[in-house]
Amino acid sequence: MRIALPHTLGKDELRRRLKERSGELAELIPGGNAEVEIAWPGEDRMDLSIGAMGKTVSGHIELADAEIVFEIGLPAALAFAEPLVRGAVEAKTRKLLA
Fold first, then answer.
1. Range of the structural domain that residue 74 is part of
2. What is the DSSP letter of 67?
3. What are phi and psi of 34, to 5 degrees?
């Protein structure tokens, strides 16, 4: 699942806010009780391992000058949850970056 959201912060400010508020990323996952592990393999990429609903999925966030892109690998068993996850990520990311 790919979710691209525009922003006007610039990459440096976007990176700063993500690093500062990375502890809040678990709140992006619907249903609560999510566990999120974060790694920064590069300046403009944050890797994620997300444990929720008895499943673990991986993904990453790419930072660009005018957008932030989430790539989340939902397994087929969770395909039904894609609209819910998409809506929550979009709404909560806007709030997180405000």
1. 2-97
2. E
3. -80, 145
Ranges under pLDDT 50 in the chain: none
Give me 1's structure tokens. Answer: 């699942």
Overall domain count for the chain: 1
Sheet containing 55-63, strands listed edge to edge, beginning at the edge strand earlier in sequence:
2-6, 67-72, 55-63, 45-52, 35-42
CATH code for position 10: 3.30.310
What per-residue confidence (pLDDT) applies to 32?
Answer: 63
Q: Which two structure tokens, joined as six digits, stand for 54? A: 């008895």
What confidence score (pLDDT) does residue 38 get? Answer: 92
The residues near 2 (Cβ < 8 Å, ≥ 6 apart) are: 69, 70, 71
Q: For residues 80 and 94, give the distance between their C-alpha atoms in angstroms, rounded to a whole number.
A: 23
Tell me the C-alpha to C-alpha distance, in Å, between residue 84 and each of 14, 49, 69, 87, 88.
Answer: 24, 19, 17, 5, 6
| pLDDT given for residue 28 in this prediction | 67
